Input
Amino acid sequence: MHIKEAARRLNISARAIRFYEEKGLIDPAKDKHNQYRIFQEKDVWRLQTIIALRESGMTIEDIKQALANIEGDDYEELLYYLELQRSVMFAKWLEIRGTIEMTDHMIQVVRTKARLPLEDIYQLAERSKRLRDQRSNWQDRWNFDKQAVEHDERVKHAEAKYRDYEAALALTVQWVAPLAGERGLDIGTGTGNLAKQLIERGALMAGVDQSKEMLKRCREKLPEMETKLGNFLALPYLGEQFDFAVTSFAFHHLSEQQQVLAIEEMRRVLKPHGRICIADLMYSGAYEKLPCSGESYIHLEKLIEVLEQRRYVTKWQRLNEHLHIIYAIPIR
Output
């Protein structure tokens, strides 16, 4: 078929097809007599793929790489590109949602006070900027993709911060006490060790992690488990999806400000009575750092205060001088 027929079949313009050709995404054959483009079924399929990836928000360069992976049967890499794009879109969606909420608040202030005080505008704008900065400043400084291969061995031998690892997972499962069929979210799931124990208790688990290699190993161990690329600050789910959220040995990677945002994100994706359980390295009193890496611990009392300010009732237990578990149930 010629370009007009291909454009009509795909419901796009011939100009768009020429653009994709200029960018090197397609290379249709040409009639040797008049140099008209001739599109085969494989060209139409490729264009359909390009259109779908563009609709997901992918850049031209990412689409080039994704197409190369498809043709090379490297679907793991293609999956990563798509999941990465979804993660980015959720972060943008949350930012837009925050802007809408800020605008709604301004409207309410104007209706109530018949004016919009400059101080209120400044505070709202600062809050919006602070949330945006907290999300955008997240980065993997620990190279978890590289750690994924040896992660299970490290926790098995209780290296440094993983002392009492199995006891922490067991107590988390005991406190969450999932009912058969309840849906749970494991944030920073890693290779799925905590999720595995919850699945064995009858929970339907989903896992979020920012490391593609960790998730790859998680899927190998737990093919029935849903996994998504993402992090605490922009969970890739719509609201009120889960009965409980858990996290183990991951929350301490967040700053104190990011920890507050992470709790808000958990609340957003949890059902009204959804509960939270955090097993991690915490301290009480003066500032401390992890002896093995210089990372900060979680301040126990401050985290409890954050939860209780959001109308959660909490309980906690200390497993060793560093490792604690906090369990939080909302008061409705």
Remarks:
- The mean pLDDT is 85.
